[in-house]
Amino acid sequence: MQPETIYDTYTIDTPIGTMIATADENGIASLDFTDKTPQIIISKYPLLLQLEKELHEYFAGKRKVFTLPLNPHGTPFQKQVWETLQTIPYGETISYAQEAEIFGNPKAVRAVANANGRNPIAILIPCHRVIASGGGLGGYSGGIEKKEFLLALEKQEKE
């Protein structure tokens, strides 16, 4: 029997809302937006404190690459898709079809898009950089207004 993984949880305020992060000994396991007013969770876990620092730098336009170890939980297919997402450069966008092609299976557009929707680590695994083939924004689990904000932030800082 596997020992139970112990997670530390932390809330982080960002310009686009409160986020809840979890981490274990192997890395950041999740980072997601919350619409609820969360109970403020204070962490002394160095990884989560570093995440907060790097997120603040990102939103201030001072960070384009995150340095934290990631440990998202998902199927092998989902993890491969999330690795593909991490190859999209800061400030750039690709279509779901392009992502499927980079992933190595051009016919898997729908499956790749579904895996994007299950991405447990917002921003650091940048699914917000994937848009519809026609140039529309497509979906975003955090809400389309957050996707618009993130894309505008990256575009502004890239220029």
Structure characteristics:
159 residues, alpha+beta, Arc Repressor Mutant, subunit A, two-stranded parallel sheet, 5 helices, 35% helix
Structural commentary:
With 159 residues, the chain is α+β, with helices and mostly antiparallel strands. The chain has 5 helices and 5 strands, in the order βββααβααβα. A hairpin with a 2-residue loop joins strand 2 (17-24) and strand 3 (27-33). Helix 2 packs across helix 3 and helix 3 (96-103) packs across helix 4 (109-117). It is globular. The termini are far apart. One of its GO terms (cellular component) is cytoplasm.
Q: Can I get a quick summary?
A:
With 159 residues, the chain is of the alpha+beta class.
Strand content: 15-25%
Integer tally of domains: 2
Mean pLDDT, to the nearest integer, reads 89
Counted beta strands: 5
The helix tally amounts to: 5
Write the layout of secondary structure elements.
Elements (H helix, E strand, L loop, with lengths): L7 E7 L2 E8 L2 E7 L12 H14 L16 H10 L8 E2 H8 L5 H9 L12 E2 L12 H15 L1
Parallel strand pairs: 4-5
Antiparallel strand pairs: 1-2, 2-3
Helix pairs in contact: 2-3, 3-4
